[in-house]
Queue: 4 jobs
Job 1
Amino acid sequence: MMKVLFYGYGNPGRRDDGLGISFVERLERHVREHRIAGIHFDSNYQLNIEDAEEISHYDRVIFCDASFEAIEDFCLTEVHPSDARIEFTMHAVSPAYVVDLCRKLYGQHPATWLLHLKGYEWEFREGLSPRAEKNLEKALAYFVPLLNHLGQKSAPFLPLVLSCQS
Amino acid sequence: MPKKITIEPVTRVEGHGKVTIHMDDEGNVVQTRLHIVEFRGFERFVLGRPYWEAPVLVQRLCGICPVSHHLAAAKAIDMIVGAGNGDGLTPTAEKMRRLMHYGQIFQSHTLHFFHLASPDLLFGIDADPAVRNIIGVAMENRDLAVQGVMMRKFGQEIILATAGKKIHGTGAIPGGINKNLSIEERDRFLDGKAFPNIDQMIDWSLGALEFFKDYHKKNKDLIDNFAAFPSSHLSLVRKDGALDLYHGVLRAVDAEGKVILHDIDYREYLDYIAEEVRSWSYMKFPYLKKYGKKHGWYRVGPLARLNTADFIPSPLAQKEFEEFRAYNHGKPSNSSMHMHWARLIEILHAAEVMKELLHDPDLQKDDLVVTGTRQEEGIGLLEAPRGTLFHHYRVNEHDQITMCNLIVSTTNNNEPMNRAVAEVAHQYLAGQEKITEGMLNAVEVAIRAYDPCLSCATHALGKMPLEITLFNSKGEKIDQLRN
């Protein structure tokens, strides 16, 4: 069985910026209720350098983040360490940066994806906007049927890249 | 031709900021400004909310130092519930909070040194941005990079064990804490099984200091003179003058070390400190009232703390402190790059404090909360990683917050950062025909020394481009760099 990590990040006190964390919380609840093995969860305000060490313990990692991009609702992209760029907040780092750092420090890295969840509102409030909530539901509907397969090494792997072109 | 250079947003600092530098026809720098371009309005946001929510609510301010806001708010709310003035908690509660706070200091300072500062030191200010980051450090010095990662992890684990959660922690509550540290939790930090233990953290902290001191020996001019300018320095100190990052009295010294704010009770801060608003920045400019807007500004943060404190109450850090003070002839250091040195000494001190606390049996006791007579006002200060953090609340008879005043660490450093930009602009840009990226990075290095957290902006994908724009005197864009 492969070890799979869903890692949500964002600030849930800034409305839709909490999409990634809400997604992980909802998915974790489902996994617990249905006792699905091999799927792990974590979340934080943002990614940082120590996450390189954390993901080194997994085979597959799916980062989940709110997106400001021009996408429809949600999409999924593969994360390649070669895409690592200097980030411009730099107290936080990108998924590609984490994966690249993992590769350089630990000699290997998990297969990694980034779930982009479209958000709309970012002010100081708890709770997702109605449109973001819908996007969250759509993403959950996509992932829930896949959960039993994510940890299987031999299973034909998932159609795990959804175009981010709107 | 007169030029206006804009660096927007400043890289490797949290949130949105931009720098503008105006130059005249002769290439002289005529004006520099660090602008803060996002208005947070947080102080208004909390109005009307029940006061007991404040320690959790304020963590929305910042994904970088939520623990500092959590604890400063908790200290203020302690006053409101009649649990003393920052020193009235049970030993278990105060020590748990201290452990949380020093874990925060440790992980935040570590991130700054290994991720933000060491690349500049290893590769030079004008190096290719592609290597001037921790991945570059990893390629050059893997051990150093691994240590940085594991030290960050250690600090984060301390926060998790004391605050209860990584996000919107609830460890500190009005009048105390909501959990102690179990033996099992404690042993994770001592036995080294899950991750390197506290003794290793102390060794690595010493190693990082040696790295810096070795670099300093070889680069004295840069470390001693880059963005150096005289200023006053302000911080909390313990009543006996010791460095104390959780609680104390307010002290300020001038550039020569003369005490200009004499260990005042921080609840009286409004009698001594005011904030100036300037039209071009959303961030205010605090100053000591007695010395006015022009001369009353001060620095906060690791450098200020080592300039105001008389000693450090942990043996290894005290030894380093003595070396630091001796190097500066017993006077305050006014070099921005000595901020890195001071930060590393504080990393070591934080590790020593954590070790002492982890061996303290009070952390396993169950007396967690005290209560007293309800008050209408609460003020909580502490020394956050970036400097003195002020939280001030008033509440009404319905327990709603009616007034909130926050002076965050970076705001305290607003004027010093502007001064640092000015110093470096004059040093690196004046008279130059061509402005290179290395020159512009020098400006950023000066700002980064203060580790500013300019805003706690959302970080959602796609929001944070870097733009450097060069304008001529007519306001026409003549060059632009975008990453």
Job 2
Amino acid sequence: MNKTILAAIAFLLLMAGATYLAVGGAGGMGGEGDWVNKLAISGAVALFVITTVVVVKFVKQMQNDTASGKLADENWDGIGEYKNEAPFGYSVIYFGLVVWAIWYMLAGYPLGSYSQIGEYNKEVTSHDKKFEAKYAEKVKDPEYLKEMGESAFNSNCAACHGLQADGMDGKASDLHERISAESVKYVINNGGNYMKTSFPGGMPPMLLQDPVQIDAVSNYVANGFKADDAAGKAAFAAGTCNTCHGENGEGMPMVAPKLNAMDPDMVASVLKDGKKGAIGTMPAFNNLTEIQIKAIGAYVSSLSQK
Amino acid sequence: MFHWLEKNPFFFAVAVFVVIAFAGLVEILPNFAQASRPIVGAKPYSTLELTGRLVYIKNNCNGCHSQLIRPFKSETDRYGSYSKSGEYAYDRPFLWGSKRTGPDLMRVGNYRTTDWHENHMRDPEEVVPGSIMPKYPWLFKNIADVDTAYAEQLTIKQLFAVPYNKPLPTADGSTQTVALADSLDGAHASALEEAKVVVADMKDQAVKDAVAAGKIPEIVALIAYLNRLK
């Protein structure tokens, strides 16, 4: 046994001892240690052994090896080199890299030009296609559209209108009723110039100025155009509300929204344009798709149908 | 040349450095110079918005809310279009955040409004059932620090040439200007003008009274900041 082997064994013992001390004696390897601990220690031991064996191998080779093989013709300041075969593993890796490099140049990064945004666009396109294929037929069923609207409502609108669409104590409008008296009053006083998509003309403010008449119209509209409310009906006509909104609030396409029922067109317009009303401002929801807008319109309209 | 370099290790090292540095310049700099420019439509923060930004930082909102929308469909559906680097040009420091305990706020101004923020800051659970966000009642009482915001504006204007009082391009081809007052009193006055616009949509009478009396509660500044995140 020579010095190198002795040194290696001493090193191994030293490291094993150090490990044993470091992990707390018997606690590490014994019955108390858990399997993660044991695994880590086995790994450490394996590392010592492999390191030692490899080092010993090459140290011995340096000590004992003699030159052999055929020398190449060239030499540099008297230092030559052997004409050894390229190791098999190296050759495999080398040719593998050549193949990979060709792929990389032509299909991989530089020419195929990967980009995160490109991938995002692909994701969106493929999603839209899948969506179209899966739902294009289904949304023609009004019940299904309503259901879809409910889930779109829950993720986009419920933050303010509440999961029950009741406006959470007046923080947003209660969608179970078409319009509140307070909102009618606000629109009469301030006009209505949102909803540009569906009703580009808007509505001028101050068509009625007498507070009694304004109250009458507000209640008349909010209560759903009751036929026996003569005062309301008269005030509604006096303010020329009926010219655009219709005798019973049935509305007029592209001119004025329905007042007697929630109108999907109007909902769509509010979603696209946003709105400022008696309660506050509602932002536009431009991230919704056409189908989602339609679905939300269907769902919201269904809420106030008695 | 090579022969000479091979015999002079120092100059060889210099030459290697030059070659690698050149590759780096060609590869990295053009894109970097482009991406770090303000995007069209970006504008520096006005005095009240910057005050609100300081409130945002002071209350460590960025500990739970990110301001960075990644290019995934699930994110852009929820938060709006993905973030571009030029949008952060006037953010010092940027508030990307590193963890979303709450939702991203990069474009919160697009889908939340003044009255919503007001309700939400006073009691998040009132508008978001099950929310784990704490209440922030002191925002309604504490008076916002406009002085620091103005000092910051002056500093970044001089040090980083942030274009206050200069026409900036917008997406539709017109220009917009963010004004910077030339005195502290002027800054207070312009912040108060902005605050009046925000407060017009608020319900809290104490806050309205404070603004009417010329003071700006932190909530007003914070909402001004959140409303401009678009």
Job 3
Amino acid sequence: MSKCYINGIGCVSAQETTNESVEISDFETLTQSINPAKKQNYKEYIAPNMIRRMAAGVKMGIVASKKALEEAGINNPDAIITGTGMGCLVDSEKFLKAIIENDEQYLTPTPFIQSTHNTVGAQVALGLKCKSYNVTYVHANNSFETAAIDALLALNETADSVLIGGVDEIAKHSTYLHQLENLVKSEDEISNILKSDTQGYLASEGSQFFVLQKKKTSSTYAELVDVAIHDVLNQDQIADKLNSFLNTNNMSLADVDSIFLGVNGDKKGDDIYHSLCESLFKNKQQVYYKHLSGEYNTVTAFGLWIAAKCIKNQTIPEVLRLNDLKTDGFKTVLLYNQNRGEHHSFTLLKSC
Amino acid sequence: MERKVAITGLGIVSAIGMDVQENYNSLISKKDGISRVENFSTIHKEVIKVGEIKLTNEELIDKLGLPKINNYSRTALLAEVAALEAVEDAGIQNIQAYKTGFISSTSVGGMDMTERYFYSCVENKEERRYIPTHSAGDATSKVARRLGITEFVTTISTACSSATNAIMLGARMIKAGKLDRVIVGGADCLSKFTINGFKTLMILSEDNCRPFDKDRTGLNLGEAAAFLVLEAEDIAIKEGKNILAYVSGYANANDAFHQTASSGDGEGAGLAMEQALKVAGLHPSEIDYINAHGTATANNDLSESMAIVRVFKNEVPDISSTKAFTGHTLAAAGAIEAIYSVLALQNNIVFPNLNFENSIEETKIKPITEPLEKELNHVLSNSFGFGGNCASVIFSKAN
Amino acid sequence: MEKLKAELKERIIENLNLEDIEVSDINDNDPLFGEGLGLDSIDALELIVMLDKDYGIKIADPKEGKAIFESINTMATYISENKPA
């Protein structure tokens, strides 16, 4: 197995994540049910004749990917692999609305083109004139994880550097429907997500990109050891599956110093985390991050971004801590995410 | 020794047949599946021709034995029919016996239901069950549950090359030892969304499409689902499986030229074919048949032919596009044509390219227009999608 | 005719999202595609829809668009000659 190092990261989110002077400890806990990403000065990153047709997801993806590539000093990766749960949802809605309202007449191509799920990965490639492998995964909460799994394969084959990323957008009517279905909280249900006793999460959007390379460099954040997904697991299978994932990587739970959990305030899914926190993960340093990022299909990429920064700095800011347990330095981090018992993922990181 | 990737099962539903045998019969008897839209209403009904599967959703629900009230999109219904056939064809009794994955692909996802209920479901609570089924991964997870696959399950969407990329990922997972067995393919149903989308690009033909013809008039959209069972050769042999063919080469490259159009010289397409040959360890002259992407748009067929001529020089193999049979089935196309490529290898037959009269002037490529019997050992299948996504896969005969 | 030309410029800027361009930046004879305003094949499709929606003129073959959309002058001439009565 060749090694895989995270050598460049970029993040657009509901927090000031493109401004290097803003620390994680400065991030503010989200208090709305719908939390748009912070606006960027896109003209700094994208030529005006390119930008005018770009969906928000494309713009966020380009900014995040440019930041990651710049940091790693790469301009032509051997693969560009993207995850997105819903693609450029705003344009999908726009085209759909036009079909319904205009009875299939006077439709224009731009929103249809943007609605194609691989439009972000494709436009990142187009901007770089990168002719390498380019694939987009669209499997709900495991979209970004599959991109990472593909990248690990690629680095074991012929690739030396791979750009991976996640991106998802908030779109108005879809979010409203998700509120009707109690997938997204309504404004009057907002509370501390750790104490939430209602269904649904805080909706958000964003894009995170990472340069993964075989070689360790001066910009290395961490080693990405392995990623595994389970489309569905019963609660009593989680421990077994986690142990066998760690075993394949010659580790056991005892080796893990810190667990980053996908707690998001949705009672229907959080019960699983809370019960693990009191059993399997009881003596582990527990971390959460979705009170800062909100929830979207590829938000685990935000989790990876946070984890990469924490490992590199060897500190976990207070705002992320779920319990009081503190360890001196930490080497091994596990990210665990699931959505109401489906789309479980384990992501294993090591400090370098 | 690297593990070889064997194909041990096939399943398909398309406009030319509800299973593998029906598809094969249509291909060799030149019976196309192009007609008018009947299953739903669209103002373009009398204008465009499509490759529609003539079973209604209710008939598919019956066929699958699902409860009358369910939340399957048509994409999921088609996917489940094809995936069940593939698993049965591979003689898999216990899906948990080996580390088995499921990789599907789609471009439409649950859009066929979303476009019906997007606004009305606010008032009508019954319709809200389709809200979570809009996601592209929903159909994949439903079929995975039905098959009993719980672990590595994912969905690819790279527009019209999606299923070819699914085959590629599946083969790589087996070679890397991450999976022993994987069911790969794709599904897309017809929807107003895609019909109108392609209409805005002005590339829908009003007649039956004519791949590689000088006077081609654009594409016919189609709907389909197809899955292949891939197994590590050692396991297939141990289990005494009938190996239908091998996945021997694959590649994905990006044209990086334009959001929707292919470059004039088909650079990405050429790269994909060359790299697939390299992975397979084959010389271009060893390819006996190319099942082309051949959508019959002005842009694709010229770009693809230019790339083929560049890669194969004076030895362009027998070539045909089967899109005139099925229509362009978008994300599913790569899996549909993978199955046709395997059938070609098994039966030593090149399937005809319908509706062709005169060659494109720039490349003079003349596709095969009648079923042609000949010894086939290696077949190349191309799939290209929006965003410059170019994928090629090579299938080789089982000895 | 002058009114039509001014209207076309406004609509092009709006429909094609040309944020940094003002009506006064577009001369009647400037090429709209390639070197001039830098429009591309997707913009041509957008303009075909604009002709249909705003002026009731249908163009069936996108290739026809090339000559029609050469400049504001050619567009205005085409519209005034083909606009349904």
Job 4
Amino acid sequence: MTETKQPSFRIRGLANPTRFLALLDKIMIPLVILTVVVIGVGLYMALIDSPEDYQQGATVRIMYIHVPAAWLAMFAYTMMTISALGTLVWKHPLADVSAKAAAPLGAAFTFVCLTTGSFWGKPMWGTWWVWDARLTSMLILLIIYLGLIALWHAIEDPIKAGKAVAILTLVGFIIIPIIKFSVDWWSTLHQPASVFTLEGPKMDNSMLIPLMVMAIGFTLLFTVLHFKAMKNEILRRRIRSMQMQAARQVASGNRAAATQAASPSTGPSASH
Amino acid sequence: MSAMGALFVRDLKLSIRIGGGALMGVLFFLIVVTIFPFAVGPDLNLLARIGPAILWIGALLATLLSLDRLFQADQEDGTLDLLLLGEHPLELVVLVKCAAQWISTGMPLVVATPLLSLFLNVEPVGIAAVTATLLVGTPALTLIGAVGAALTVILRRGGLLLSILILPLTIPVLIFGVSASLGAVTDPAPFDTPFYILCGLSLLYLVIGPVAAAAALRSSQE
Amino acid sequence: MFGNYAGFILASYGVTAATILVLILWVLLDGRKQTKILAQLHERGVHRRSERTKAATHS
């Protein structure tokens, strides 16, 4: 990530991590304020202003966090897929950072989707968990997220880890729709269609609008967290390369290099 | 093409040799099927009903557990570097290695299936169906497992991680394999629909597996 | 105000809030940690290549 001097990275402005960090510092505070306002309005609409469902009663209020969480769970994976293409095809220096920052967020929102679904299912279905097609697919998505994170931590070299994860992300992107299809197929084979679906197809505007506001709020929240996590990751890689560079200088016999690294012609390692 | 033939024969010889692990897969399959009745009870009616599922789970685990050495041994002794530098496309190399791997570990499982089905009281039509689905489905497991083996090739202990990464991706194969097997014995459920989907899945994995595994091997050796 | 299901609704919102809080804490604390290490490295005189010429004029 410190290869800022290579000319190819200057093609697009944001490809330069330093410039990206500067932009982040500029837009972060307005973005946070916007997020807080939108989620605040959304919460008011969802918890106080919106009507109860004639069939599901007040539990419909769970929908206003359950559905946005489900949306983000899939959005984060799409984001990681685009980043994976960025890593493998365009070799964009920030793509790998973006994917790594998005994975824990995606896993967390998948977890939120599953738990809120469970809290919704208990009063509606009478059990905490049903092997309903949608819940099951979400559970598999969570396992895939955790597997990707595990692969990241297993491989020490961040560049190699990023590439391995990118390949697995792309394979997952192709296979996840097939998993979804087969779980749907399996679900209809094994149990009659559930009494009602969690999200009815037709929804009144009095519920649709709060849902949209919450979805936008959650997406903004995701963006803020993602940007901040990306910044952390850029700093982490910078630190790693600086530490390795310092270690190399020490190892090359020039014990004082760490303090004299200032002049570029000090040691042979400086040219590397 | 003769180079690929030589690679195929070499891989086959290595895995059939003592310690190569080809027979281990069948043994593992046998022990998994044997311990199931201890967990669920010796009720033959119940076993007949869940028999195809047990056989599929056993075959799935046996296939995955034998995969972690697919590329690792080659990486340790330097063969992998030669294969990467060779004139043949790496995708083809992966495909040939998978074929040898399946002949030595997957096919014995398919051959053992009718015998193990008898232990589980599966009726004759069901035995034929499970064997047929495993014959079509286990190559898909080997091919998608090769991706996991390639991703974890640089890890010293990648076996567990390989299973964690690959098992979710095998769910479609498992669903349609078991559905087709059950469809053959239970009346309203169809056999042919899930079976054809299973065949389609195997063809799809035949493309994804070698391409992704080759990409993973290239990136790991840079 | 949520009828019989208040517990489930509050639990849902509670779990969501807790998860988001953990995420926020994670990014903030991680960011603080990285900034601190970076500052320590600068103090010890380790600089990035792009900053080195700048540092040379100072020392």
